Amino acid sequence: MKRWLALHAAAVYAFLHLPVLILAAFSFNASRFTVWQGFSLRWYHAIFQDQQLVDSLWNSVIIALAATVLSTIAGTLCAYGLWKRGSALLSGSLYLSLVTPEIVMGISLLALFQWSFRWLHWRLGLHTVILAHVAFSMAYVVIVVAARLRTFNPTLEEAALDLGATEWQAFRYVTLPALLPGILAAALLALTVSFDDYVITSLVAGVDSETLPMVIYAMARRGASPVINAISALIVVIFGTLVLISDRVRAS
Amino acid sequence: MKPGWERLRAWFLLPAWIWLWALFAAPFAIVIAYSLLTRGAYGGLSEPWTTESYHRLLDPLYLEIVLRSFVMAAATTAICLLLGFPLALFISRSGRRRNLYLQLVILPFWTSFLVRLYAWMFLLRDTGLINTILERLGLIHIPLPLLYNNGAVLLGLVYGYLPFMVLPVYATLERLDPALEEAAADLGAKPWPTLLHVILPLSAPGIRAGSILVFIPALGAYLTPDLLGGGRTVMIGNLVQNQFTTARDWPFGAAISVGLMALVGVLVVLALRRERESLV
Amino acid sequence: MEFILELRGVVKHFPNHRAVDGISLRIPRGGFYSLLGPSGCGKTTTLRLIAGFEQPTCGDVLLNGAVVNHLKPYERNVSTVFQNYALFPHLTAAENVAFGLRRRNQTDVARRVREALDLVRLTGKESRYPAQLSGGERQRVALARSLVLQPDMLLLDEPLAALDPKLRKQMRLELKEMQRRVGITFLLVTHDQEEALSMSDQLAVMNAGAIEQVGAPPEVYLRPGTRFVAGFLGAVNWIGGIGLRPEVTRISRGQPSNGARFRPATVTGSVFLGNCVHVLARLESGEEAVAEVSRGECAYTAGERVHLCWNPSDEMIFP
Q: What pTM, to 2 d.p., does this model score?
């Protein structure tokens, strides 16, 4: 049976990874057609020539960083608070936000913002996207940090109190350092999820806050040039590297 | 719990409570309110409060979309289970390489979902790689319509949600006492009966968890049917998006969303209740 | 086919570790046998080699006269009671017991299960799940599950380790009685010498992957073949190269006159153990010894000069 399992595993892994690998391979294709005509970096050069692309990339980075900072802080504190004493309402809502289809999250946030336009004088823009990203990435952060907390020995905090620390100090100097790898992993996850989001972002972004996924979507829809292949390859490599680094950091 | 900890906890949970009420509950409440209003003359909303949008849901046209979404989600879950369970089993038995194989499952998750969908478009479209290769080999003369149909959408859904099935199943398998498998062998069970009578029943919690994590998002999927179905495979997610953009019928879109969320709520409660029972 | 189990020069090497380093053993049909040794001595590995969960690096394992090295566990007619019982949590007690029977497509399952549960005195608990049973009850389900298959041999891997002390003593008698009643050969693996001594017809003492001695309990205890065996089966006073059990080491104030050997010593303390007293003394040669003395004898005080004495026939001498 072991042999069957191994064969099956190989097939499934191929299914999961080949498409993107092929896509990346063709990013080096000199021709714009699906026939290989030599090695070329022209599509990579083309990325930086497209102003719309570059602007959207910049937007994506800003949004991702801002949303990650906010959701990581809020999520970490939340995970810790729930670890002290649970809250069915909070845990249930976080789980619900995780399984809620993106389209529903997107339109409900859009509805919220539209409604708020009556009272606050603002429009859809970077800020609404950032808020939306915080909304859907909270659950991810809480899950990752909560998992890390489960391996933390609570007696250490008691020891800290015994030695004269206040509760806050116990958290700050004993628990927080121990949680750091988990927090970093959570931040990386939030960053990735935010950078990649299309559905929710497309609904709550304003006219001048186009993100990279939105541009990619438009290009995919148009059936455009292999520039997408190049962008895709870059995204895969960059995030893949970040994950590997974060893993090494966590392992040490 | 001591008062000092309670205070710290209260402060720490404050941002999360703000998130819950402002960014989670309030939006849903507003959507529910929208679902009970009427479509304005130029799109947007207008006064008469009515349940008309919900009645429209019962129109056979829309019921067909709901049915299709259900069938798609169910098929996706079933295929993910068929593909994912053996993979999870393989990883749980892979000894030292276990982390590597896990990473290989998680890795796609870190890759942009949009990119992954586009990869299939690149492979499946008329001028895509598969058709090009088949034509070059002389096996076909006109391109096969691999893209923009139900099959492609199903493929995309399975492709996208497979890791969500593998990980919970793996988590359960990993916690199984290896002595149970040895006991089964000791009592005369060969590998396949052991799988059927011991491993599979004991993986039920993981299978349930994985099924929820696949079925519900698949039910409300938007991007996959949009890109791989090309507008021909309309699922609930596409319908909602449509109401909020081109059709500009917010009340109707809201009603569909509320219906979908009600369904999600019911499924989640049912699934969680099974969990508690098995913990007794 | 007089021997139910035979190990011929069995060796098992793991990448970093020589678990079993050449073991030969023969166990006749019927009776209660033990493999005794400290943790890491290879006894559990030996058990797994017999059950089929490991294959020997060299040597042969024979069951009923046939070499079974490459037979899978489900092809061998031996059954194992695991250390933590390995009961299937999703099946009731009765279904657990029925498991092996169903794999054989056995007829008459219900009756056999009932008889097995009666044998271990668990009637009435058939529909309980393992989580709802106590430790002792779980062990009995594990026994019933294995015995119902009527194996040639029953292997028990530290079966009493997970029970609390009082229950352990009671279970020793029950297991011994069960073996007598059922007639199947039992092979028990343990690190508890009291367990091995009280239950076995014969025991094998293992150390560092090899068997140091095989014999009936009194023989192994009173006439140990090596220093290791002597030290593992009980306390030993090492005096000038010979070994003496504390219970045969006596103390007297004057020189004994009845032909006993003796050495002068100074009392260093005494420990009250309830049923007896252990008097600790140091000989002039520097060795420390313990003498077991009955409660009634007058107390010895620290610093007192006494004589340690013993019968020459009680000496344990090693080459």
A: 0.83
